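Form 7-S
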Amino acid sequence: MDLVHQFVTYVIPFVVILSVVVFIHEYGHYWVARRNGIKVETFSIGFGQEIFGFNDRHGTRWKVSWIPLGGYVKMLGDADATSATADAATAEDPDSFPAKTVWQRMAVVVAGPAANFIFAIAVLAGLFMISGRPYTPAVVAEIRDGSPAAEAGLLPEDRIVAVDGAAISSFQDLQEYVRPAAEMPLLFTVRRGDTQFDVTVTPALEEIEDRFGQVHRVGLVGITSNSIEFRTSSPGMAVFEAVSETGKMVVGTLKALGEMIVGSRSADELGGPLRIAQMSGEIAQDGLVPAIWFTAVLSINLGLINLFPIPMLDGGHIVLYTIEAARGRPLTERSQEIAFRVGLAMVLSLMVFATWNDLVHLDVISFVTGLIS
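Output:
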């Protein structure tokens, strides 16, 4: 029963969420390929042997395969699903992928990641309009004894609505005003029940340590907030916020990867499919809205990772096509073969490393070593 429970809790949400973002990615390739007159032979969700499928009127085989860790679109003229090499027998066909101009091929490749970003923006915008965007309000939950807030007479449930006349809409807004203002008197406008009043609060200069061990000297007033509220947005504002949120996630991911590369952040945080499965299961148990939000986040990450300039990935294809456009001719088959082999080694190494992190994170390694020690 426990195995069945684990399957239902983690495996099914993981397969459903991953299949959605993979479908969006591959459909982006498919849609632009068809618009450019390219015959698509296979559209597959998953790898390996086919579970079920059908042929459409354009001759494309749509199918679901057994290994749900990705997907592919195989076009006429491709020797394999990665479009790494051309099939000599069909590459000259005018409907084949290799026969198209470099700009058409580049458009097909870019379309996959672009579809992931567009999908994520649409999903986030819908969530912001319908269910609202979660935020922490500037409502006092706890007050530290002897803190500036306690000396000023603030109480739990007080809502700070303005500081020095500037409106405060969230706890983050309040922090942005308070932290740079150590030992500077600030005029808090506070709403308590049906009344509103002003009170002066002077943030104390304190040292805090971030997760990287760096010490910062900031102003603090000694209050916390632990409630969550939701703020809905108009359609126009929702789209703007969705684009902004997508940009923040992309920048945050690149920043985290950069910190791992230079060693200021542990690479143990890098997760693989097992960690994604665990997160999918846990978030799915929180309800439909968190699961939809996680799907959008995963779509952004899938689009971003595929743009990395690694041969085998879409970004690697874009680099090779850019070189071809600049030179007026493609790299030699030997050069492309070497590039794709290096790319394959990099992708496989990354997958092994991420999966190892997953096994350590899930205590599988400790369990196995305990059995043999």
